Amino acid sequence: MEYNEPKLLSKTLSFIKEAEKVKKQLEDEIKAYKLVQSKDGTINQLKNFYKDVELMIKSNNHNPSYPRVFTETWDYNSELVIQLLNLYELYKKVG
What is the mean pLDDT of each run of 10 residues along the chain (95 residues)? Predict the structure, then answer.
């Protein structure tokens, strides 16, 4: 089995870059929520999603909670939902 380190590193860096973007969007959404301008979820959900993204950056075997939460309560047309689900798909490819 051939180990392709540059390709893996590229995927990992791509994931981290995307994860940092999503973290920033979550931070903005948390701030908006505090100003009663948030469109999505609850403050606790947003904070948990942020923690999930941080854990995904640190570990390649974290199983984030947000895909399950979305199926129960969130609007799939939400830009935040789309970004988080895309991040999850990228995460699965890296791990």
Answer: 57 90 94 76 90 92 87 79 92 85
Distance (Å, rounded) from C-alpha 51 to C-alpha 68?
15
Length of the chain: 95
Angstrom distances, CA of residue 83 to CA of 2, 66, 95: 32, 12, 18
CB 94 within 8 A of CB 60: yes
Distances (CA, A) of 91 to 1, 12, 37, 54, 85: 22, 8, 29, 12, 10
| Angle, CA 38 vertex, CA 37 and CA 42 arms, to 5° | 135
Q: With a threshold of 0.90, does the pTM exceed it?
A: no
Angle, helices 43-58 vs 79-94, to 10°: value is 20
